[in-house]
Specification:
alpha+beta, FAS1 domain, 7-stranded mixed β-sheet, 16 helices, about 35% helix, glycoprotein, signal, FAS1 domain-containing protein, FAS1_domain, proteoglycan
């Protein structure tokens, strides 16, 4: 009887051994209650702490804080709650975009201790620090005000939390790495940006009184039926109403959303606020470009940076329709990237691209390993390539404002000959 009880006791111990081993393997190390991570979860940066928990990053940060000190740049709650684009926030919280959310949050964490005195002393100097997302973030200072910046965000609350294993600095806005912004721009599937056959009512042939044969199907990605100049909204001197678009009443593309995306990318990229302001506030070109993209057209925007736009005079912008004409000359009705334009100018020397400012064309040529647009002193270089590319709209940053060459009108001198009747002589 004693042997039987001993055998059952051995089986009981054997069955409990794997379970206890599994508990030891899944047990997570406990962090100190005075840790910077605990301070982040208990701080007033509740929106950031909530995103860290949703991104499942607590275990990763626990391992990082055990190896070295951390510096966390925490955006204020308003930047994540009210100032953030709802579509971008919805994109981050989608389950399929967990990696993008993790990359964005780790972009705010530097695996080193950065104190307020670590910032450079002037704008001419800047420091780059690697982050946990393997992207590098820039530290800079503004000379006029002495404000400290991390990337494009101003530090508004340095040393908001100071702990032995890390420090938290409050910043004014969210930092968005370029890879996450590109993922957001490319979130649409290829099906959503492929062209569809225009729809229309059936037509009857008046001679045979039969239905006309439908036109052959348009291949996906083919150009729309109407030229882009016919689909543009004409000015009051041309027609009282906009010309009809080729897509019929059912628009397949969401052009307004794509235009909103590229304008937001211009603002977040930095250095192109004047261009975005003209598109949205000074003109209605953003709406017109969105309608063109909705109809199936593609556009390449040559965007001058803020330094170039600041050189425009009041006379150049004060004439009626002047801002529209300037921007029209910077929009090419083709889809071109930096690589495609550079390959063209390398192969052909000089290439003339059509613009929405008919009939003027913009000249492109290869110069100094880049693409140069325009003529002579009014030329501009391709400065920031591929700021935005989504298959329909391409935005290329240039360092100057382009103007078409002046047209010299020659007045023809018309000589009018007056015929004088000769008097008749009588017989």
């Amino acid at each position: 009887m004693a042997n039987v009880m001993g055998f059952f006791h051995f089986l009981l111990l054997l069955s409990c051994f794997p379970f206890s081993l599994a508990l030891q393997e899944t047990h997570l190390p406990q962090i100190n209650s005075n840790s910077v991570l605990v301070a982040l979860l208990d701080s007033h940066y509740t929106e950031l702490a909530e995103l860290v928990e949703k991104a499942l990053l607590l275990h990763t940060l626990e391992e990082s804080v055990g190896k070295h000190n951390l510096t966390i740049f925490a955006p204020k709650n308003e930047a994540l709650e009210r100032n953030l684009d709802p579509e971008f926030k919805r994109f981050l919280l989608e389950p399929g975009n967990l990696k993008s959310l993790q990359t964005l949050l780790l972009y705010h964490i530097v695996p080193a201790r950065i104190e307020p005195h670590s910032w450079p002393n002037s704008t001419s100097h800047s420091l780059l620090h690697p982050t946990l997302s393997h992207h590098r973030v820039q530290l800079s200072r503004q000379d006029s005000t002495g404000a400290q910046f991390i990337g494009t965000a101003r530090v508004i609350n340095p040393n908001a939390v100071n702990r032995p294993d890390g420090v938290i600095h409050g910043i004014e806005q969210l930092l968005i790495p370029r890879s996450v912004q590109q993922d957001f721009n490319n979130r649409r599937s290829l099906r959503s940006i492929s062209a569809v056959k225009p729809e229309g009512a059936p037509e009857v042939d008046p001679k045979t009184h039969r239905l006309k044969k439908p036109a052959p199907p348009v291949k996906p990605g083919a150009a729309p039926v109407l030229p882009i100049y016919d689909a543009m909204a004409p000015g009051p001197s041309l027609a009282p109403a906009p010309a009809p678009g080729p897509g019929g009443p059912h628009h397949h593309f969401n052009g307004m959303r794509q235009v909103k995306d590229f304008i937001q990318t211009l603002v977040q990229y930095g250095g192109y606020n004047e261009m975005a302001d003209i598109l949205v506030n000074l003109t209605s070109l953003a709406t017109e470009m969105g309608r063109l993209v909705s109809e199936g057209y593609v556009l390449t925007v040559l965007a001058p940076n803020d330094e170039a736009m600041a050189k425009l005079t009041t006379d150049q912008l004060s004439e009626p329709g002047a801002p529209e004409q300037i921007i029209y000359y910077h929009v090419i009705p083709e889809y071109q990237t930096e690589e495609s334009m550079y390959n063209s100018v390398r192969r052909f020397g000089k290439v003339s691209y059509d613009t929405l400012r008919l009939p003027h064309k913009v000249l492109a040529q290869e110069a100094d390993g880049s693409v140069k647009f325009g003529h002579g002193d009014g030329s501009a270089y391709l400065f920031d390539p591929d700021i935005y590319t989504d298959g329909r709209i391409s935005v290329q940053g240039i360092d100057g404002v382009l103007f078409p060459p002046e047209e010299k009108s020659k007045e023809e001198k018309k000589t009018i000959k007056v015929a004088t009747a000769k008097p008749r002589r009588g017989k």
